[in-house]
């Protein structure tokens, strides 16, 4: 058996936490041969609920669960963490302006970034789920100057998976057979889900669908507003599908994609004209614990327009938190 790895999860008492922790402990994220120690962070007032989740985790008697720690202190929860999934964030309350939301989350993610900087493994892989995910990941990255910037990522995988399932429904094909799907930009309704390169059994999905109006008027709004549609239907925001996307993201980053494209929010290296450092959704492949941006894709006029919209939104968010980063 391998030595256990430490997985820190914030917002552990929340609804995504509840859908996430049991799957991590059962080995779905890092493999059925990889023991894990869970290090759970939540606010002081949520500690009783965290204890309850830990009791349930115990009651599953997961063979791979090698230990658990609960804390309200990021310096404790991130100690020696090999993975950190940052789910807890300040939700937008009634009447709260976007600026206030950025500010409140800025306060959380500067502290957590610094705690990762000071206490986590130097190879820690960080995934930010809590919204606004890209900008929160950017803040954490900037607050952790001693860790490699590439270790910080934001979750675009839910958008990617949502796009795959819309394409499967439209073409009548199996979701598993769709290759080369990409999502660009911010995890927000401005994200650009791009199926121009997607194939099913070697055939072009764009040619199969052959309907640009469906792309712009049905597909993109459906994927972009899916989160709102779930809230409308369920009365609560996406939780199990968000947890599933987090599992997929870390699984693929750690264990590789065998050449398959997935989407990750990562600090740009300047590819495709996205300014360096912007936390942006790109199509990537993963191998040996590293991700690589898929290069050489043609960006047509429609795509450039969409990419610019989502980039502008991220640049505005980045400007909105600049004063927090010194
Ligand atoms: P919940 O409100 O159910 O749970 C959030 C938990 O985080 C609570 O237990 C709360 O006490 C805790 N928390 C708040 N501030 C904290 C802090 N500073 N340190 C540690 N814990 C803290 O929300 P849930 O439905 O689980 O959603 C969590 C986050 O995921 C939200 O920001 C939400 O917007 C975001 N999402 C992101 C998605 C993505 O694709 N990137 C999709 C799903 C989801 O909307």
Automatic annotation (TrEMBL):
Q: Which residues form the Lactate/malate dehydrogenase N-terminal domain?
A: 5-152
Write down the CDD domains for this protein, in alphabetical order: MDH_chloroplast-like
User: What EC numbers are recorded for this enzyme?
Assistant: 1.1.1.37
The active site is formed by: 187 (proton acceptor)
Keyword terms, alphabetized: NAD, Oxidoreductase, Tricarboxylic acid cycle
Annotated catalysed reactions: (S)-malate + NAD(+) = oxaloacetate + NADH + H(+)
Q: Which domain of life is it from?
A: Bacteria
Pfam families referenced in this protein's UniProt entry, alphabetically: Ldh_1_C, Ldh_1_N
Cite the binding residues for substrate: 92, 98, 131, 162
InterPro entries in UniProt: L-lactate/malate_DH (IPR001557), Lactate/malate_DH_C (IPR022383), Lactate/malate_DH_N (IPR001236), Lactate_DH/Glyco_Ohase_4_C (IPR015955), Malate_DH_type2 (IPR010945), NAD(P)-bd_dom_sf (IPR036291)
This chain belongs to which protein, by name? Malate dehydrogenase
**Tell me, what does this protein do in biology?**
Catalyzes the reversible oxidation of malate to oxaloacetate.
Q: What GO MF terms are annotated?
A: L-malate dehydrogenase (NAD+) activity
Q: Which organism is it from?
A: Rivihabitans pingtungensis
Q: Name one GO biological process term.
A: malate metabolic process
Q: Which family does it belong to?
A: Belongs to the LDH/MDH superfamily. MDH type 2 family.
**Residues of the Lactate/malate dehydrogenase C-terminal domain:** 157-318
| Binding-site positions, NAD(+) | 11-17, 42, 105, 112, 129-131
């Amino acid at each position: 058996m391998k030595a256990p790895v430490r997985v820190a999860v914030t917002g552990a008492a929340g609804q995504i936490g509840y859908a996430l922790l049991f799957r991590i402990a059962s080995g779905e994220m890092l493999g059925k041969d990889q023991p894990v120690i869970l290090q759970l962070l939540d606010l002081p007032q949520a500690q009783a609920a965290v204890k309850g989740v830990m009791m349930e985790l115990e009651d599953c008697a997961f063979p791979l669960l090698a230990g658990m720690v609960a804390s309200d202190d990021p310096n404790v929860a991130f100690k020696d963490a090999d993975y950190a999934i940052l789910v807890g964030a300040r939700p937008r309350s009634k009447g709260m302006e976007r600026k206030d939301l950025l500010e409140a989350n800025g306060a959380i993610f500067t502290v957590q970034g610094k705690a990762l900087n000071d206490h986590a493994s130097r190879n820690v892989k960080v995934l930010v789920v809590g919204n606004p995910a890209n900008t929160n990941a950017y803040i954490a990255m900037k607050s952790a100057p001693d860790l490699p910037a590439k270790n910080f990522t934001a979750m675009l995988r839910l958008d990617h998976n949502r796009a795959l399932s819309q394409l499967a429904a439209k073409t009548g094909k199996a979701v598993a057979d769709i290759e080369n799907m990409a999502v660009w930009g911010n995890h927000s309704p401005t994200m650009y889900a791009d199926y121009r390169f997607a194939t099913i059994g070697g055939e072009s999905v764009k040619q199969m669908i052959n309907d640009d109006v469906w792309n712009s008027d049905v597909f993109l709004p459906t994927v972009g507003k899916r989160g709102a549609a779930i809230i409308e239907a369920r009365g609560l925001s996406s939780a199990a599908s968000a947890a599933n996307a987090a599992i997929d993201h870390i699984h693929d980053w750690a264990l590789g994609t065998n050449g398959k494209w997935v989407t990750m929010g990562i600090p740009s290296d300047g590819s495709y004209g996205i300014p360096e450092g912007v936390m942006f959704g790109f199509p990537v492949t993963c191998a040996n614990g590293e991700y690589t941006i898929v290069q050489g894709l043609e960006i047509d006029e429609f795509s450039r327009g969409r990419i610019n919209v989502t980039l502008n939104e991220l640049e505005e968010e980045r400007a909105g938190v600049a004063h927090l980063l010194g």
